[in-house]
Design goal:
This protein is about 60% helix and about 10% strand. The chain is built from 12 helices and 3 strands. The chain has a 3-stranded antiparallel β-sheet with strand order 1-2-3. A hairpin with a 2-residue loop joins strand 2 and strand 3.
């Protein structure tokens, strides 16, 4: 049984309707094993849109002299799956995620794409329960503070362009991206893309669109290249 009081304290938000919070924590694997229990996919779909809007507005106002390309790269870094997965981990709520027995055995709560999806679903649940302002406040308390680290690490630099430059310079090749897996209903698709050097898989990435998954894959490939250099 989920201790909702403890969980809401960690989220710094008290729900009027706690059932929506429980839904936000319900991975589709758990829903598949338990009939009549709704998964968090619809809330994830909503939360993704709210997160992008809040972050976009914040960056638009914070950097009045910056052009669209720069703002887009910062937004991509802030809402990137790995970034919001780290945010969810920092909230210490992984134990509350409802997973199937199979996902539990494979440490599903440690998978970054599941963590990212749950974070977005929580945003969606807060938005549905309390409205835009409280959802925005939650994002400002959790995701926006990661901007400083992103700027310090230059994690906002276009990962795909950066990877292409390195690949051409070091290996005289152009990275290619191929779909590895596609899952979820039409309204909440999840894509896994692989980035390849010739026929060799370098890294994978997940996202709610192929473009997002490619960016994640490129970012992960850069991390792998840095380890080997």
């Amino acid at each position: 049984m989920i201790n909702l009081k403890s969980l809401q304290s960690k989220l710094n938000y008290q729900f009027e309707d706690t059932s929506i919070l429980e839904t936000a924590l319900t991975h589709k694997s758990f829903s598949n094993e338990n009939q009549n229990i709704q998964s968090n996919e619809r809330l994830e779909f909503l939360g993704d849109a709210v997160l992008e809007l809040v972050v976009t507005k914040y960056l638009f106002e914070k950097f009045p002299d910056r052009q669209e390309g720069y703002l887009t790269s910062l937004r991509s870094a802030l809402v990137r799956g790995k970034n919001i997965a780290k945010v969810l981990e920092s909230l210490d709520v992984l134990e509350y995620i409802k997973l199937s027995f199979g996902e539990q055995r494979s440490n599903g709560s440690k998978k970054s794409y599941i963590q990212a999806n749950v974070y977005e679903a929580i945003v969606g649940s807060i938005y549905m329960d309390g409205g835009y302002e409280v959802a925005s406040k939650f994002i400002f308390e959790t995701v926006i503070p990661t901007l400083e680290g992103i700027l310090e690490e230059q994690a906002h630099i276009d990962s795909k362009s950066h990877l292409q430059e390195i690949a051409q310079e070091r290996f005289n090749l152009t990275p290619t991206y191929h779909l590895q897996k596609e899952s979820g209903p039409d309204h909440s698709k999840q894509f896994e893309m692989g980035v390849f050097f010739f026929d060799k898989l370098i890294a994978k990435g997940n996202g709610s669109s192929k473009q997002k998954a490619e960016i994640e894959a490129a970012y992960n490939a850069l991390q792998e290249i840095q380890k080997d250099s």
